[in-house]
C-alpha cells in the first residue's frame, strides 16, 4: 500500500516519499493514513491483508483507532511461529534469479546446478539481507518490538498461531482454515462488516 501510494503520488504518498528520500522512517500516522486511504478503494472493499504492519504496539493501537472510526476491526492476526534456528536455515539458504525473481533454496528447493538458474543458466544471487548477521539483528528487533503486538492482539482473542516450521503446503492449509473460520464467523453475524468476504 505504501509503494502504491508513493507511485500514485497521492498527498500522503508524496509525504511518505519525502520521508523516504531523506532516509527517514515513514511516521506511524502517515502509514495508518495510507491504509485508511487504501481501504476506500474498490480493491479493498471485500478485504485486505496487512503484511509487516503493525510492528509495534503503538502502531497496532493507531490502526485499531482508525478502523474503529470506520466501524470495522482487525478480524484475525496470523502469527507464523517458528524457531529462530529454523528460520536462519531457511533465510540463509535462499538464492534468487534476479531478472525473473525465481527463488531457490540450497536444501529445500535446490537448483539443478548449484548457483545457477534452472531456466536460463544465469548465476543466482543471495540478497544482502539474507545473511545470519542481518537476520540476527532483524530477529532481535522482532522479539523486542513485534512480539508485544502478538500479546496485544492475543488479549482480543484474534491471534491464530500457525506452525511455520511445517512444509509450505501444510502452512497454506492452516492459513486457509483460519480464513475460512473467520469468514464463516462473519457470515453468522449479520451486523459484522468482514474484510474476508469473497
UniProtKB/TrEMBL annotation:
Keywords: Kinase, Nucleotide-binding, Transferase. Its EC number is 2.7.4.3. Pfam families: ADK (PF00406), ADK_lid (PF05191). It catalyses: AMP + ATP = 2 ADP. InterPro entries: Adenyl_kin_sub, Adenylat/UMP-CMP_kin, Adenylat_kinase_CS, Adenylate_kinase_lid-dom, P-loop_NTPase. One of its GO terms (molecular function) is ATP binding. Monomer. Catalyzes the reversible transfer of the terminal phosphate group between ATP and AMP. Plays an important role in cellular energy homeostasis and in adenine nucleotide metabolism. Belongs to the adenylate kinase family. This is adenylate kinase. It comes from Mucuna pruriens. The gene is ADK-B.
